[in-house]
Amino acid sequence: MEFRFKSSEYDGEELIKSFKNDFETTDLSEEEYLDFKKGVIGSVKETHINKVFVIFQNYVTSTINNHTLHVVQNEPVFLLQFVFQGDFTISLDKDTDNVYSLKKHKYNLFYVPASNHLFTYRDQKKEILNIYFTESYLKEKMGSYFLDNNPDFLNAKKEKKIFSIFHQGMHLNVRLRNIVYEFLNCSFNGIIKKTYFESKLTELILIALNTPQSQPSNLKKEDKESLIMIEDYIKSHLNEELNIEKLSQQAGFNTSKFKTLFKELYGKPVFKYITHLRIEKAIELISKNDYSISEASYEVGYKNPQHFTVAFKKKLGYLPSQLIKD
């Protein structure tokens, strides 16, 4: 199995990745790419474990123009995508009649035949988790019923067309976000890390494809857009004091309505969700950017590092010092 990636943002030649059938491997391999063109900041990280190939895109472009990723693959695959930032479309090369889109805070499972296809990104910020696997792996985890009783999928497979399992994409709820961040911020090494990755990916796939979504049916579009705007604001101001009154005012709600709708959309009260985001950010700063415990705690809004340590231990069951590499 072979993939060829060529990005309008990557400063290099076409990237070629070769795999055994069904992405089989006995090892865990990880790579990180930082060689972007001028004006692009961030990284693309790859993880390959047995039967699964993962790409995490996390970068920002200085221009607002659309960017493309051209992919050529010689075997059909399934692609499970989780979009945190960066709306995009996927289509077969030069096929303008069958274009699928996926927006921020959504996920979907795509069947992608052996083909030349394009990802077109419409936002400057891209934060997308891409999980590739084959039909045999999906049936191993989900059984044959999931695919064999879907006539639309069977027809797309026969006609070698891209197909999305969920028509408009599914809501990326808090439970799935937690699993993704646990996967991305794993602090284990060696065989333990490999086993952890395998278990987390299995958990992520099973829950994403089985759990009925709790996306509120009575939430107005404009209310949801206001809450998503507030979530983006919170993420970019974690080092500041955040209070209900200020956030409610920015969202255009009274405090009671804001708290009710926020919990309805995100599954947690506002301050529990803020704590969740702060700890996620701190994990990244400590484990990937070599921040000290004190530096990370101040960066995510804790004036007292001890308070941060207590909150961290309460949520995750271990101390943040365990993230520091020897």
TrEMBL record:
Matches recorded under Gene3D superfamilies: Homeodomain-like
Superkingdom per UniProt: Bacteria
InterPro entries according to UniProt: Homeodomain-like_sf, HTH_AraC, HTH_AraC-typ_CS, PchR_regulatory_protein
Positions of the HTH araC/xylS-type domain: 228-326
One Pfam family of this chain: HTH_18
Keyword Signal: no
PROSITE patterns registered for this protein in UniProt: HTH_ARAC_FAMILY_1, HTH_ARAC_FAMILY_2
Keywords attached to this entry: DNA-binding, Transcription, Transcription regulation
Bilayer-crossing regions: none
UniProt keyword Transmembrane helix present: no
Stored PANTHER family: REGULATORY PROTEIN PCHR
The protein's name: Helix-turn-helix transcriptional regulator
Organism: Nonlabens mediterrranea
